[in-house]
Amino acid sequence: MGDTADGASQELFALLYRELRQLAHARLQKNEPITLLDTTSLVHETYLRVARAGRMEIADRAQFLAYAAHVMRSIVVDFVRQRHAERRGGGQEHVALDTRAADSIRSPEEEILRVSDALDELAKVDERLVKVVEMRYFAGLTDEDVAAALGVNERTVRRDWQKARMILSLALQ
Which end of the chain is more exposed for a tag (fewer CB within 10 A), N or C? Predict the structure, then answer.
């Protein structure tokens, strides 16, 4: 990424920093007790990943926020997966224990992973539904922002959101 792209990326983040913080805060508010991520860390990690991605063709604010929502989903899911690996000993030798009772209790972190896996499957069928879920569930964007980012009307976003929730609820049973 050249200096021009770096400058444009930095300028875009500076302009939207407050909104990105609000998105990150809304996202973490849902699962505050389960992660060690804070709002600032999530926004800064989002910036680093966007900067590493290189030059982006983003037409407007809504499209950028949609992309940021996707990146935030990735960060949260990666963080949860890393914590699960650490809890299970990472590369340590495993000792078999009877954990049936504990395994039957789902944590909020496991819910994030299950939703993410279900979204990966849904992407094979309908990519727009996945984008709606990412922007609503992972970033807390409004129907208006989602509609602007996807170039559809708010009614379509509401229908997509209902459809996605129904499909995901069936997938998560």
Answer: C
Report pLDDT digits (tens) over 40-72. Answer: 888 888 888 887 877 777 777 778 888 888 888
Q: What is the DSSP string of 106-168?
A: PPHHHHHHHHHHHHHHHHTT-HHHHHHHIIIIIT---HHHHHHHHTS-HHHHHHHHHHHHHHH
SS3 state of residue 91? coil
Amino acid letter, residue 110: E
Neighbour tally for 19: CB within 10 Å: 16
109-123 CB burial, b ≥16 within 10 A, e <16: beebbebbebbeebe
Look up the pTM and report it. Answer: 0.67
